[in-house]
# Entry
Amino acid sequence: MAEKERRLYIAGNWKMHKTSGEARTLAAEVAKAVGGSSRTIMIAPPFTALAAVRDALDSSRVRLGAQNMACEESGAHTGEIAPAMLTDLGVETVILGHSERRAIYGEDDTLINRKVRLARAHGLEVILCVGETIEQREAGEAETVVSSQLEQGLAGVEELSGVVVAYEPVWAIGTGRTASPSDANAMHALIRSNVESWYDRDAAEALIIQYGGSVKPGNAAELLSQQHIDGALVGGASLEADSFVAIVRALE
# Structure
């Protein structure tokens, strides 16, 4: 199948898995297998493994990402990681607004927006995550919730270059359930339509919108073939080189 005009972007979110040694080994395996791919590829290990993964990715085109970032430059914020600390380690991309940060750690749209604007000010690419819970979907509120999260997350962001959006229905993350390709594509189309109304058509057409939610080798091709799905934010399937590489190579 022909490559889309928007380059597919596959990102691996390792969450709270892998020691530095394990991360180095996995990153080296991924880099060896797909480091020369024409697609955009990123892996986000835990903070403690960033340096090890950076070294393992040194000669490849695979991007180094972080899973979160503080909303402040520096100061008395015990346990937080400043943007300059990430860029100092060679991090290029940061995942913000992940549903686990929202649901477990109480991050709201205002806080996430502060992080988005600060990350962009430091030259970090942002993957902004949005998505509804099963209760919100069953109540017919999915589109409203996603649109609101997106609008508030992008507040004050004048230029969308350097911003990627990831639609991750909360009910599909780590559950084995996946939004149907048509349903996922419809939400991606809504996101693109919103961006066109808030920015312009060129910004909307250029925007990379990933799907996240139990993406695996068996469903990647069908998801990625949808018109408005431009990549994947991969969780569990990114923890093994074979399964992540299979997703990266889907549709090739």
Remarks:
- Strands lie at 9-13, 40-44, 63-66, 93-96, 125-130, 163-167, 209-211, 231-234.
- The mean pLDDT is 95.
